[in-house]
Design a protein that fits this description.
Rossmann fold, 239 residues, alpha/beta, eight-stranded mixed sheet
Length: 239
């Protein structure tokens, strides 16, 4: 970890944010997304699952569509119009070729300059041990970026009319090796609104539900001492 955080690169126009579940992107990245869309950049979301196993006591058949709707509502709060779901089963996502292929397919179709993914390490920057789905999707996203740029990997994608695409940057959220950050001074409230859009999910957490505003402000302030005192969302930049 560096002593100071550098400003996140600005020389890009389109981004694809990849996560395992609805609400994953709202724990910080949504505030950065709001800053990007406010600056005129185009951001799209890709969710590997529909989060159907995320609310205890609510059948997955009912929960999945509900959480998809909440994700779209949360995305709208930060200027994201396109939200796509791959439909993998929540809680049992496996890293492997099918997931890499599906992510590479979306990258080739969306052609983003920047791909944002979750940190695949077992121990994220916020501590604890991260969920298996998060780790599998984070690693598959990193590999999928590389796969998308190689015409000889998943050759069937070319046959589908999807030529190789090389993203300029890959950024990992919640990484202990973060060295860049996005100033969210003016967009933190939008990020808070984005997570609060997941109303039924948060209600389903019961006594474990966080104080959303306090939590997200706390996360942003954690990066402030390394970023000139400004609240920020930090990322590890891979390329």
């Amino acid at each position: 970890m560096t002593d100071t955080l550098e400003p996140f690169p600005d020389d890009w126009q389109t981004a694809l944010c990849i996560a395992a579940h609805p609400d994953d992107l709202e724990y910080g990245t949504a505030s950065a997304v709001a800053a990007w869309t406010r600056a005129g950049k185009t951001v799209t979301y890709l969710l590997v699952t529909s989060g159907e196993a995320g609310i205890d006591g609510l059948d997955p058949a009912e929960c999945g569509p509900l959480r998809e709707a909440e994700e779209r509502a949360g995305a709208a709060e930060v200027g994201v119009e396109s939200v796509e779901f791959l439909g993998y089963p929540d809680g049992v996502v496996e890293y492997g070729l099918p997931l890499r292929r599906d992510i590479a397919r979306v990258i080739r179709r969306r052609r983003p300059d920047l791909v944002v993914a979750s940190n695949p390490d077992p121990r994220p920057a916020w501590g604890g041990i991260d969920y298996a789905d998060h780790r599998a999707v984070g690693l598959a996203a990193v590999d999928g970026v590389r796969d998308a740029g190689n015409r000889w990997v998943f050759r069937e994608l070319v046959d589908e009319g999807l030529p190789p695409w090389k993203a300029r940057y890959t950024a990992l959220a919640a990484s202990p090796r973060a060295a860049h950050a996005v100033d969210v001074t003016d967009t933190l409230e939008s990020g808070i609104a984005s997570l609060n859009a997941h109303r039924r999910y948060l209600e389903g957490l019961g006594d474990d539900a966080p104080d959303v505003a306090q939590m997200l402000r706390g996360f942003a302030e954690m990066s402030a001492p390394r970023f000139g005192g400004r609240p920020a969302v930090a990322y590890e930049l891979l390329a």
